[in-house]
Amino acid sequence: MEVFCHMKITKVDAIQIEDKPADQPGWRPIVCRVYTDTGLYGDGEAAIAYGVGSTAAYGMIQDLAKLIIGMNPLDTEVIWEKLYKSTFWAQNGGPIVFAGISALDIALWDIKGKYFNVPVYQLLGGKMRDKLRCYASQLQFGWGERKTPAYQIEDYVANAKKAVSEGYDAIKIDFFTFDPKGYRYSSEETTRVLDPYHVHVVIDRLAAVREAVGPDVDIIMENHSYIDAQVAVQLGEQAKKYNILFFEEPTTPNPKMNKFVCDKLNIPIAQGERIYSRWGYAPYFEDGSIQLIQPDIGNCGGLTEAKKICDLAHIYDVGVQAHVCASPLSTAVALQLEAAIPNFTIHEHHVYNRYDYNKKLCKYDYQPVDGYITVPDLPGIGNELTDYCFTNGKVTTIE
Predict the structure, then answer these.
(1) Residue 25 pLDDT exceeds 90
(2) CB-neighbour burial class of residue 292 (10 A; exposed 0-12, middle 13-18, buried 19+)
(3) What is the pLDDT of residues 196-218, one digit of tens each?
(4) Residue 127 to residue 119: CA distance in whole angstroms
């Protein structure tokens, strides 16, 4: 085995996937590949594949890559601290700078696993479980191979029944994304205290799904922070009788607003896909306003930071479900972390993982069987980019 200090990072490819799916024109995964002078390489992802910000994340990877050329890829703590402390904007930073750090950090852990010829979970302390319980995520978009928005109550019932028929005993739905008339709600309609019509839209859908799947299937009520704290309390009070497992992103990720909702409702709160770094999570742990954290490894600071966040959560008896909504690279990384931590609760299997335009980005396609997913045992993170990413993406090389 060669001496550690002899391995160096030689170049980094930042990749912006250019192929835009017809039913998801805003879907643009941002990935990277880090190369070394030994021939080993690692792949990572900035999990800003949807919403606004992918172009910025693509540029951020390029900016940060310049700082790690020539460094030892095994020095993940050294590199993380350099990217955090020497870039000015990373301290107390938001999703873009942390997505850039995350992408590079994930790639470095991939290299580290390949160097030692072990899965990343082994480097994180060992595998505590072989299979992870999953939930079928975001059924308001359907549960098939393409996006099919759910407008009518029967759509929600059909999607829930389909997931349960595949062996899932837990599902997640945002009941307040689409109006029954066939359009997507605006923030004007989802914030402030709701009128009776809109309350019934949400609660009637929840009630129908609960009746359809029975008492032994867990339901996570998703909100994407589209509602505010007042609406969260209003809907949460009505939702209690349907025994939801978690009330997810019930308000803007702000400690005081989250605490307000938590104090008013006796429902477990899930939050975290828009909370970045251990410093961002600390207030929620200290005030007890989150029962399940959902850090996205691709934008919270990478594996180096996500493991620290999960360890802090464990101190406060807070469970973990990594947020996963990007390419199959992010799925593989989440599985590595969730296999190794004691406070793992459940794994998110997003409906986007069923779409061909996402599957073709990576070599391996990890799908649950009977509601459980197997942890990859390949060296590194357990997945890698396909040639498609390089031939159908905008590639910028930093060396």
Answers:
(1) no
(2) buried
(3) 999 999 999 999 999 999 999 99
(4) 9
